Model the fold of this input.
Amino acid sequence: MATDSSALKPGELQLTPVRRGKPPRHLADLDVAGRRQAVAEQGEQPFRADQLSRHYFGRLTADPEQMTDIPASTRDQLSGSLLPSLVTPVRHMETDGGSTRKTLWRLFDGSLVESVLMRYSGARERVTICVSSQAGCGMNCPFCATGQQGLTRNMSTAEIVEQVVAGARMMADGEIPGGPGRITNVVFMGMGEPMANYKAVVSATRRMTDPAPAGLGIGQRGVTISTVGLVPAIDRLADEGLSVTLALSLHAPDDELRDELVPVNTRWKVAEALDAARRYFDRTGRRVSIEYALIRDINDHAWRAEMLGRLLTERGRGWVHVNPIPLNPTPGSKWTASDPEVERTFVRTLESFGLPVTVRDTRGRDIDGACGQLATSGV
Done:
């Protein structure tokens, strides 16, 4: 059963003005050298930047009162200039007994974005946070709530990182049932097209994966960056020296349908996107995930599964993993999830090609689980 921990008054979201300009500079926007330079510019010793980093990335605090190793005369100035508040929680919604928490955040300019924290218990516990990289999205995919909003703006490196730090605090403070824990996985599958905000997404990935105190110390192999198929950006990511997983949101194996479902396909066709994904595997050794939202009577036909199987296997074996995703429908939309038997047939057809297939565990249907739904509803 879903619970709503919002403390908002009706209409509060609509009354928040949108300001123009860039987000304030934040410690997480800067690499180690940049942080030391920023501190030195304020007349402080560069090692103060390392202390700030230990508090923010290691102890997960931006509260100057807790920074007792920094002189009281300077801690307010340093924290105020390098640890500004960038994301403000507007609403939490929880389901799965509290192990799934979706948060609506307000950015400094009034823009709204979302993240989802998911705790999976078991012999090897996994805690995944799904983060946004843009306010809105410019890709215009018709079945996606965010895609129908249009693009408001790119998020900064620190705004992206702040979602993860906030999730890490929730885990460390024991707010998620199961006791204190830590985030093990980050997926760029929230609002926005990550590759369209390439520089900030890569910088944020480095902040998340650099060892403390430079960053959060999350393993690179636990990070997944999704894309609808921006081919030049895929090739660029392959040369970054990162060990992250690439997820290609394909959703159709034929150009005719994908032109409709994923409009960027009119620029880079299915074959071009798959070839770029294969090159990513060749350069990094990291197996690519093919994301495929199953939409009833639209893209869930057995013949399309056969076509997808042929396209993937003709590019080799062992380089790809297919993730069919039962669509989280947007209220009022004609798009809805496939029937369970149709889904099973689709999966069996792919498996007949020797492909590894895992149906995505779609949490949060009862808390507006599709990314963009809370921001769109404005409640």
Notes: The CA atoms of residues 200 and 344 lie 38 Å apart. Confidence is low (pLDDT under 50) at residues 5-18. Residues 157-172 form the longest helix (16 residues).
